[in-house]
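User
New here, help please:
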Amino acid sequence: MPREEDIDAAAAQHRIDVPEDLPRDPAGVLLRLRWTGDLARAYAGDVLVADQFCSGRVWDIGLDRMPAGAPLTEGLRLQVLPLARDAPVHVPGRTGDARREARVLDAAWVATRRWSVRTG
């Protein structure tokens, strides 16, 4: 695991604003990210709300994990570390030894719904 000061020095920084027209119930709202790199962290203000090592899959972050009100006023800050050429990491479906850049390829806000179903 990289040291905090190494992450702060080497990570690409991205800001993602939260649209004002998202549903107010944060339990049904996700930020869906496609990204490349090694390690990514999401912050609401100075609070770390999620982190992930790259697996080649999308990364969903629930808005309900964030401090109340912080994402709407401050947005989200993402830190993404690049994957070094000699890193001993295997991502299924990826071949070759090319360095993967630290980038966010796509970010989308997704509103989900849940239904209660009665049986009988």
Summary: The mean pLDDT is 79. The radius of gyration is 16 Å.
